[in-house]
Sequence to fold (516 residues):
Amino acid sequence: MTAIQLNWALAGTIVALLSVATVVGQLLARQPQLGLNPAAVNAFNGRLRAWWIICCLLSVAFLSRNLTILLFFLISFWALREFITLTPTRHGDHRALFWVFFLFTPLHYLLVWLNRYDIYSILIPVYGFLFIPLRIAIAGDTKRFLERVAKIQSGLLVCVYCLGFAPAILDLDPDNYAKCSRLLFFLVFMSLVSEALHFVWDRLYGRNVISPNINGTRTWEGMLGGAASAALVGMTYQLAFQPFNQLWHTALVSMLIAVMGFAGAMTMSAIKRDRGVKDFGTLVEGHGGVLDRIDAICFAAPVFYHVAKMLLVA
Amino acid sequence: MITEAILTTTARLLSGASVRWVDSQPDTCQRVYFANHTSHLDVVLVWSALPQDVRRLTRPAAAKDYWSRGWIRPHIAKVYNAMLIDRKEIKVHQSPVDIMLREIGQTYSVIIFPEGGRSSGETVGDFKSGLYYLAKKRPDLELIPVYIDNMNRILPRGEFLPVPLLSSITFGPPLWLEAGETKNEFLERARNAVLKLRERER
Fold:
């Protein structure tokens, strides 16, 4: 199959899978006598709606590199808004925050667009890291100084720097754009699938809760089982669309995505518990914020980017 | 018309405001919306948070010294159909409350910020007596408490560059002046109504 045909096949498969899941979800919602927890069915259907939105938005990746980078910039910007909104800051942080939002975030994506890996890979972790405490120090408010600096730095790193590696995947193979766009899709698809697999394993076989203070439903069984079954799904995916050259490459990357997605969800949950909220935002009423949906991708993107880079060269 | 659309959209995008009505519904009946005041954008924000038919019948009260300076501010004030109140020179029969009552007539609602000026946003300051006299002279007006959250972080006092955090606006249930209630009791009750919406936020 040619690259374009493969893209169409992939899009068709995704739409078919989502349609099946939607039909099942609707049937479950109408069959109360099955004895399923209605809250869980509702949560499943809510997730599905979010997945439809994500897949529709992500389809621009097949069409245009520019639009994809713009899309991820907007997502980063919104996620950072949600992150900083939940983080207590003081008046002294105002100017630093202004530069974080209107200089570092657009500049990072501009460099991603220019494909300058050498600069964007250090812009935020080095220059942003140094700039933020300096600007807050100039503002002259010393109360909980280090804590405030760290909060802004983490927000910028998670929401902008880490997520920025997702559109950067499009430049992994300069000669084959279609292949890169499928790699980006693979990352997003696998993090959504592994999220679902974690959920199923937690419900069916979960015994040992990892950390009851943070999330009472996440278990070790769910984490390991989710990662193993994600590898299986990845191998099936490999047979059809060949994101990597070797079967074991795909299996390994799938497992990594599952584990990193788990790490992202866990870390973001810790922040939410600390602030005493359930969700980061209310962009769509009842579905949480943007950051609640992309936490897994934020953590998986940089790891995926670097591992895929190594595997493609090998 | 176009300026209205542009300003409303900009205010919403910039502040990312989510609007909530708690035990209360948007209505075109005559009302006094009273809100906490932490930033210059507050007026625009509360006004844009109302549904269009209600917004057309709602006039913010704004400080004349701030909103009549330059050329863009008077223009904006005109779009919002704001009533400019002189807070420096107050004459007999020309008190802000009298002007407001004359301006709203039997049709309009009004948005006021009873703290008098912008506060730091850490707490809600004491209310000035204007709200009490409004309620006393026009007992038919519904008084709606409004809490604006986070605007003090988006555009704090003394800053001119906004940071695009997410704010939220909560409208509460109406209250009226009770029979035999003193001025201080009433103002304290009104202030607590705003603070109660703040606790709901957290």
